[in-house]
Amino acid sequence: MPLKHIEEYRDSKISKKLIEKIKNLSRRPIRLMEVCGTHTVSIFRSGIRSVLPETISLLSGPGCPVCVTDQYEIDAFIELARIDDVIVTTFGDLMRVPGSVSSLQHERAAGRDIRVVYSTFDALEVAQKNQDRKVVFLGVGFETTAPTIAASIQQASQLQIENYSVISAHKLVPPALEALMSLDDVKIDGFILPGHVSVIIGLDAYRPFFEKYKTPCVVAGFEPADILQAIRMLTEMIESGNPGLENAYPRAVTAEGNAKARQILTDIFEPADACWRAIGPIPRSGLKIRDEFAAHDALKQFDIRVPDPQIPSGCACGEILIGKKIPPECKLFRKVCTPMDPVGPCMVSTEGTCAAYYKYHAG
């Protein structure tokens, strides 16, 4: 039997055992939230919800970086793209996110210079090749992508690439967990913590949150067996009344995280208050560029004036992001809002709950 098939068979056997353990452990209704958008997609793709006992509900949280980017920030990106002699560079998942009256995709079709890049260093190269124009990278993402964006600012400073800047709309995961616990009508019994983010920040970054709320938390990998293991551990904690902060992804996540990545974040950024779609302002949940790198801070280089943002009427993306609703409970889902013609960001991003539900959930 080929190695790949042996591994798949082994994982299948492990998953079956984990499912049986979960069923034997689960006695009362519990609600678990996966914070990471990649977990959301993996859960849908592998059909994990369908094999769990009815007592366990999985909620999709604000783990899609494009989805939680505030409407004001999306509108600011669009206004920035409308400035003459500016080249906007961005990852592709932002292009189709609807702003209040337009999108980056529509602006590019109207003639604005907006370029999709695959790394921040591609954006730096654009700046080096277009020194007579200003090049701005749209910095969106969690602690996973922020270090590479910080590195581009550092390199631009060192190489004196004066026409390169970043607009920072980064978000930090641990403060969002605390905000979720304070929301009315959102009951969460345990968290499946994001693997990729945890590789950077480490397990200990969640300890202040856990010590305050004593809510069971488990860092998980992305294979079905990884996620089922996290669910088993959370179920056991909840049923026994012994909450803990545990790492079910030790092959990639350590207690301290990636020291080099954390250091460059500290060197280039500092914590700042940030506004999240659906949740609102969360203290110290964002990253702003330090004053010593102001030459590469687009917010300080451009006078960006944004009209009052308008949320699409009837769009339930915000409520879906915090676990208050599931996509079929949105009156626009599958009718007006589809991947081909999205109304909200949850249908745009490949990590969005609506997009995953549309692709993998029948009906």
Number of domains: 3
**Which spans have pLDDT < 50 for at least 5 consecutive residues?**
1-10
Q: Briefly note the structural class of the backbone.
A: alpha/beta
Largest sheet: number of strands, sense, barrel closure: 5 strands, parallel
* SSE pattern: HEHHEHHEHEHEHEHEHHEHEHEEHHHH
Radius of gyration: 21 Å
Instruction: Examine the secondary-structure arrangement and name the CATH architecture of the largest domain.
Output: 3-Layer(aba) Sandwich
Per DSSP E runs of 2 or more residues, the count of β-strands stands at: 11
**Beta-strand percentage?**
15-25%
* Helix percentage range: 40-55%
Number of helices: 17
CATH class of the largest domain: Alpha Beta
What is the molecular shape? globular
Terminal CA distance reads: 37 Å
Structural write-up:
This protein has a 5-stranded parallel sheet. It has 17 helices and 11 strands. It folds into 3 domains: 113 residues, Rossmann fold, CATH 3.40.50.11750; 151 residues, HypD, alpha/beta domain 2 (Rossmann fold, 3-Layer(aba) Sandwich); 44 residues, no CATH class. With 363 residues, the protein is an alpha/beta fold. The two termini are 37 Å apart. α1 runs parallel beside α12, α2 packs parallel to α17 and α8 crosses α13.
